[in-house]
Specification:
Length: 98
């Protein structure tokens, strides 16, 4: 049991980070505004969690202008996909270990 718990990734302990990764894993690029609405997050809260995921290189950021308005989008990296899958696999093992 300890072995399984040790495989859980601490970065995904946060509900918000788990939500961000869940959205990004099933989509290509997702805009900040869309993440904010889907996760019911404030700008600052979402930005701080995105920064933590970015620091670990789990997500990639793309900034561009649409017309004159800035648009920031995110996608999961290969490293992030692997880490998230390992975390979900560990959770599943933990739940099935009765």
């Amino acid at each position: 049991m300890k072995d399984i718990i040790n495989k859980l990734n601490k970065i995904f302990d946060s509900r918000m980070r788990l939500g961000i990764m869940s959205v990004l894993v099933v989509n290509d690029w997702v805009e900040f505004k869309t993440l904010k609405e889907n996760l019911d997050a404030s700008d600052g809260n979402l930005a701080s969690h995105i920064k933590a995921l970015e620091k670990h290189e789990y997500i990639e950021v793309r900034k561009m202008f649409v017309g004159r308005k800035p648009q920031t989008s995110y996608r999961v990296t290969k490293i992030g996909k692997k880490a998230f899958k390992e975390h979900l696999d560990a959770l599943e093992k933990l739940l099935n270990n009765r």
